[in-house]
Amino acid sequence: MTKQAADAARVERILVPVPLGERAYDILIGRHQLCEAAGVIAELAPGARAAIVTDDNLAELHAPALESCLHQAGIATTRLTIRPGEASKSYACFVELCDGLLAAKIERNDLVIALGGGVVGDLSGFAASVLRRGVRFVQIPTSLLAQVDSSVGGKTGINSGHGKNLIGAFHQPALVICDTALLDTLSEREFKAGYAEVVKYGLIDDAAFFDWCEANWRRVIAGGPERDHAVATACRAKAAIVVRDEREDGDRALLNLGHTFAHALERLTAYNSRRLVHGEAVAIGLALAFRFSQRLGLCPGQDAGRVAAHLTSVGLPSRLQDVPGGTGSAAEIVEAMTQDKKVKRGALTFILAHGIGKSFIAPGVPADEVRRFIESELAGA
Amino acid sequence: MTKQAADAARVERILVPVPLGERAYDILIGRHQLCEAAGVIAELAPGARAAIVTDDNLAELHAPALESCLHQAGIATTRLTIRPGEASKSYACFVELCDGLLAAKIERNDLVIALGGGVVGDLSGFAASVLRRGVRFVQIPTSLLAQVDSSVGGKTGINSGHGKNLIGAFHQPALVICDTALLDTLSEREFKAGYAEVVKYGLIDDAAFFDWCEANWRRVIAGGPERDHAVATACRAKAAIVVRDEREDGDRALLNLGHTFAHALERLTAYNSRRLVHGEAVAIGLALAFRFSQRLGLCPGQDAGRVAAHLTSVGLPSRLQDVPGGTGSAAEIVEAMTQDKKVKRGALTFILAHGIGKSFIAPGVPADEVRRFIESELAGA
Ligand SMILES: NC(=O)c1ccc[n+]([C@@H]2O[C@H](COP(=O)([O-])OP(=O)(O)OC[C@H]3O[C@@H](n4cnc5c(N)ncnc54)[C@H](O)[C@@H]3O)[C@@H](O)[C@H]2O)c1
Ligand SMILES: NC(=O)c1ccc[n+]([C@@H]2O[C@H](COP(=O)([O-])OP(=O)(O)OC[C@H]3O[C@@H](n4cnc5c(N)ncnc54)[C@H](O)[C@@H]3O)[C@@H](O)[C@H]2O)c1
Question: Which residues form the 3-dehydroquinate synthase C-terminal domain (chains A, B) (predicted)?
Fold first, then answer.
């Protein structure tokens, strides 16, 4: 028995439905799903043509396999490749991609397939949403972050000079395929960064899953059933929140746990992935959100300590001091948090926590309070 | 009594609802609605800020009045101005407008208001649909074409080198205000061009309205209750079709009567408004659609004759020969019709007619048949 056959035999495919009415779709999770999934795509859009959008790294590693599976299933493909990295979520790449899809004569009944991390997914999902006012879109996320977060929920978009993800659309995919074997080629650093988003779901409202993460994180990284379980748990959690609040008018904001800090840190490091990638910023943001909650007297110090300890043992950053090259002053960090938003009477909306698994939306947190907290963090208190 | 007061007293405000479920909205029609409408906008979005998008012409003619009405109603405004003309429906203007809206700190609960013709409406509606993944959008159409067609139905978008309106979104407005007095400053040429779209609704499925147009078109141009009636009839007709088929999966294609020809002519005249504006291209397209239907033995010659005669008496073009500078050969026209589409086995989808008010969707019209028809038109047969 080959390793691949063994893998396939060992792991069942997990199906997570996302019941969004006429926009409902499935997430298929498991090792070596690619060829089986190609058949599902063919059922979804018989006779359609598919434009596969990917980046240079994935073009080499996984695009050829996907293409041959799709061809076997009777789907003709063209491939459009972008440069890896956050810089591709730009107006310029968006325009180029739209024109590339038009040149490939992708029409209303055809498909756009994203094969890549969150960058490929966000950019190509946005292009799919506006191409001929909307074509169907399939996500094949290849990074852990994309499998557990960005590929689910329909948020797509690009960055502007004014901030991240400020231009985009809610465009739900028609299907999401999480082939966890694709993650085997991901760098350890990117894998761990994605893992911060896995932990987030435990911290939001599932203390038992956080316990499980503490016990099983090594096996998640190694691959095997634990990895699939972690991806499925994350997708289920995200799907449940998205179904409650598709367009982020309420509850969905919980998914931003750690992200107000994270976005400021990404901005202050100029989205330079050599210094910080999104998931690393989220790791620091999670630890900060818990310590901030502790400081406000909302959350036991023990829980804040466990969060930071778990991130550290995995090898993730958890303090502002962990950012290579530094972050700037407290005032600069607060300024970066509010840059693209009107601050209502000097107050910010934060996701805070009463403890692990007990997060909540806190509107009206005074910006001054945030600044003083960051000052104490920078002082290493 | 001033002229304005007399106007206001004479004409009731007409309300046309567009019952699209959670995307339902109203169209308000009448002379001198602007200040009353500002109050409706304020009710829609209490405390919101509004970005008024307009073009240089309207900035001078009507923006100041709108702004002072909005300020009186308690809505703060900023103004973003584009250059008039189809060339502004470009990627470059789209990017500039998005960044302008971000610089003005327009947020999720704020408004984008389009004050202008179809160009301003299409461009700013698209920008509103993607700004922070969607903000509310109010249409204040100022051209006849925009009042009777482009402001209703939620289609927004820009052009690509590959063709018109290929990049965009379905983004329904929250409110449409058709102040028919705004049309008093419109050039006669633009007014008549918009009138072609009014006639179209009669030709699609309302023979009695076509009769009415033949009898009343002079009063529509002059202003007065007939103009309001024409705008309201057109809006009602469009709303009914849009409600049946919001995303153009079926019936809505009827609105394309005359447009397959029109788009080809616009393309062949390089969207140069000195040669041809959209409504003029539509006028020729309507006449061609009826003569083509006649040639195919579907439509009585008398009806095709009436269509052309009405357009001519209004002062609109109705033949390919009416295009200043010519259109190119039949083969070039057919090529321009199909350029941005896969042609399925040499066949095109057309809107044809069994007579005035009896239009239907005809898939599978052989491209050869179209070419021969155009040849005979060019030969003046
Ligand atoms: N849409 C959403 O809801 C949402 C949610 C969270 C994050 N995001 C966005 O996601 C982006 C980050 O996503 P990301 O972390 O996946 O970044 P990414 O797409 O840049 O991928 C990270 C790196 O890993 C490489 N890579 C991906 N898969 C690989 C594989 N299987 N093997 C080898 N290399 C591989 C990529 O080429 C890239 O160099 C950010 O832009 C963030 O804003 C979006
Ligand atoms: N979204 C849709 O459903 C839809 C439907 C039909 C057409 N369209 C689009 O609409 C556009 C054409 O619209 P349009 O004909 O209004 O063109 P336009 O917006 O370019 O306006 C035509 C000209 O009239 C001027 N103008 C407008 N209102 C005026 C007024 N009250 N007084 C003086 N001048 C005025 C404008 O400044 C411009 O120079 C095309 O881009 C077409 O694709 C969209």
Answer: 194-343
- Cβ–Cβ < 8 Å for A258, A282: yes
- A32 assigned binding-site residue: no
ipTM score over 0.90, yes or no:
yes
Nearest CA in chain A to B101: A162
Bridge partners, residue A250, by sequence:
none
Q: Which CATH superfamily is domain A188-378 in?
A: Dehydroquinate synthase-like - alpha domain (1.20.1090.10)
Domain with residues B3-184, CATH architecture: 3-Layer(aba) Sandwich (3.40)
Q: Note whether A141 and A121 are within 8 A (CB).
A: yes
- Of B187, B181, B217, B219, nearest to B202 (Cα)? B217
Q: Would the CA dihedral through A321, A324, A328, A332 be positive or negative?
A: negative
If you ran DSSP here, which 8-state letter would residue A88 be given? G
Could you please report the per-residue DSSP string of A343-379? Answer: -BTTEEEEEEESSTT-EEEEEEEEHHHHHHHHHHHHT
Q: Which of A107, A126, A133 sits opposite B342 (nearest CB)?
A: A107
pTM of the model: 0.94
Average pLDDT of each block of 10 consecutive residues along chain A (381 residues)?
50 88 95 90 92 98 97 96 96 98 94 98 98 97 98 96 94 97 97 98 98 98 95 97 90 93 93 93 98 98 98 98 94 87 76 98 93 95 58
**Catalytic annotation on B248?**
yes
